[in-house]
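User: Continuing from earlier, I have the next pair ready.

Assistant: Great, send them over.

User: Here they are, in order.

Assistant: Folding the first of the pair now:
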Amino acid sequence: ANAAAVRRFAERGGTVVVLAGGGELLEPGVLPYPVSFAAKPITVLDPRTPVHIPFPRPSALDWPNRITSSDFDDWIGTRARELPASVDARYRRVVEMNDDGDQPTDFAILSARVGKGVFIYTGLSFDEQLSGAHPGAARLLVNLLSAASRAP
C-alpha cells in the first residue's frame, strides 16, 4: 500500500533496501523494475560458499567500508535465499556465488538507480548474520544503506 511513497523517497535521493522476499515482490510498484522468481526458490544454503566480487568492483563494496571476500567468512545458517531467477537489465549485480554443483547466480544483491536515489534488493541472510553479530555483514549492510549518499 505504501509502495508509491517508498518509490518517491528513492526518487528524491533516498536509499531503499529490500530484504529477501518472494511473491510480494512481484506486486506492481514494490520493486522499481521487474524480477521473476522460479517455482522452486533459488538459495545458496552453504554459508561457506565463496563470494566472488566482480571487476570492476561495484561501488557498493567500497564505501563507507571496503568489503572483501573475508567479510563473508564465518557466516552462519544460509548464505542467501529467495534469489530471483531473472531480473531487468537496469539492475546492477554486486556479487556472485553458488552452492557446489549449482549454476552461479549474481542476483544476491541487485542495485538500481531510481531518480536521484537507489533501490537495492538482497537475498543475503542479513537477519541470521546480524543476530549472530557478524561484523562483515554489518559493514556490508551499512554500505547498502549508504548507497544513495555514496562519496564521489
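And the other member of the pair:
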Amino acid sequence: MLRNFISDRLLEYLEFQPTQGQEDLIRELGIFLAAEDSSEIMLVKGYAGTGKTTLVNSLVKTLISLKQKSVLLAPTGRAAK
C-alpha cells in the first residue's frame, strides 16, 4: 500500500533508529500523505530533542524522491532556519 511505501521511505532517510513515538509519527505521516482528502493539515509538535526537525528532514527528502512539492511552516526554533 502507498502509506506503507511512504513510511518505509521515511525510515530510509532517518539517520538513527526511531523511538516508538517516532515510529508512530512515521506511520501517521504515511497515512496522512496517502489520504485522498487534501483539505487536511498535519501539525507536528513535541518537546525539544524529540526528533521533530530530523523527521521533517526525512519527510522532505522522501517527498523530493517522490517528485512531490512541499511547503513547510516553522514559526520558531531551529526548524525555522
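Worth noting for the second one:
The chain has three helices and no strands. Residues 48 and 77 are 9 Å apart (CA to CA).
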